[in-house]
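In keeping with the milestone schedule agreed at the kick-off meeting, the structural modelling team has produced records for the first pair of proteins. Each record is given below as a sequence line and a structure-token line. The laboratory manager (R.T.) confirmed that both were archived under the project's standard naming scheme.
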Amino acid sequence: MQAYLHFGGAFCGESGGPMQTVKTECKESPLWWQERGLIYTASGYGTRIPSRYMVKWLGRWRRVYICHISNSGTAYIGTWHKPLATVDLA
């Protein structure tokens, strides 16, 4: 699997700045509750919901998190207060 990391932009705290896209490796690595078909929150909404995917960045595998507040979610790596990059899984 491949993933694209997007650095910069409004979600990452740099509105109006230049964006950079980097292609990287991606793997499926579900957590125990995902393997059992459970969800992270009762409503399905949240700002830091762990996904079943991990991407490789700077030699480390990092968990992809989802910020899901309304009808659509944004995948990212980093912390909610300081996201490093948004993620597109391909």
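The second protein of the pair:
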Amino acid sequence: MPMLSRFLSWFRPITLGAREEMPLSEKKKIYITNTAAFWLVALGPIFGILNAVSGQPALALVNVATTAVGVASLFLSWRQWHQSAAVLLLSGSVIAFFLSGLFFNNGMEYTLLVGMMGAVFMFEQAWLRVGFAMGGALGFLAVRCLQMAGYGNVAFPPLRYVANLVVFLICYYWVLEIFRIVNGNYHREIERKNRHLAESRRRLDRDHAALTRLTEELRTANTTKEKLFTLVAHDLRAPVANLRSVLDLLEDTSLSREEFQQIVFTLKADLDHTHASLETLLTWSASQLNAFAPVFAAVDLRKLAGECIGLMHEIATRKEITIDNRIPEEALVRADANQLAAVFRNLLSNAIKFTARGGNVSFEAVRAGGAVWSIRVIDTGIGIAAEQLRQLLESGHADTTTGTANERGLGLGLRICREFLQTHGSVLKIESAPGCGTVFEFTLRDAVASETRENS
């Protein structure tokens, strides 16, 4: 009944003493207690007046007593003494209706059955539920049995008897409707809270996923920072120290023009190498921090390898290492020029470090199918031990070792190569054995074939 639901939503006596923060089960008991008390307060005076006018003052006193019980119960609910209100309501009404039905034969013993139902919903304690339910049932049975035995068989106006029963049935239906509405509201509130909890859970899951993502990004950023600091120490400390030593030599000694020119030539070579290392470092750190995306274009492999060889020429000359550029002139690949140059520089630098005086390093490129070039950097160096090779293949770096002229190396430079090649969809392969040199190999797509494919 929507009208009844709206009525209960604003009718204050029903919700008297109920607070918003209360559990739903507690509110349910309060609503039921207040509804029963309201009917005692509302109907007691009416029947009291009727009984007084019809010459039944004793029954009118019973009506006054039930009204007082209802008022007292509502007062106790208002003061937050909810169980006391329920106990007073049930005990007072059971006694009043028992006496009324027994001595005045007005049919009010049927109201004791409502008390049985109310006890089930009003109390959490089993002994209170069972006690009041049994009290109402025994009271009803006692009245009916005594009436059949002829006790208290007082004539009561039939019309009033029927009116009492009609009012009882209306109140009984009303109480049942209250139970239905309260129970429905109770379950709707539970469903609402469940939906709220489900939405909160979804928000928590989203927040947890976001937090996990941020944690991973923070971990990556910290790892990148650690790599950055290590790379600075690894690739820039030694060249800068060499430059300082040369400058100290220029400052503290008298040099001939030929010696000065030789030192200037060496100084420029070291500066070029340091500049190349710095460029590699900046390119890698920017890629780690997602500062830019690689720009793919046609790259001349032979020309790029020649530029890297020029940067490393002085270092290779000091160790009497020859560098051969065997890449054919038609070798054009689709790549990011800066990242690919960093790969060439790092592979060549490592090859020089681990190649003994008088050795050889070569760049090669052959077609591996019509649309792919296989690029290799081959040295005749000391090779890589099996355990170091396993570390390089699995994680991209190995324990730091010294080169043939006590250079530091074999580790972070190769990690940079692997990461840059991954952005090109390629994998760095390594073949080596102690004393047999090393071959670094990777593949890149042919620029012409890639352009044709994109335009088709």
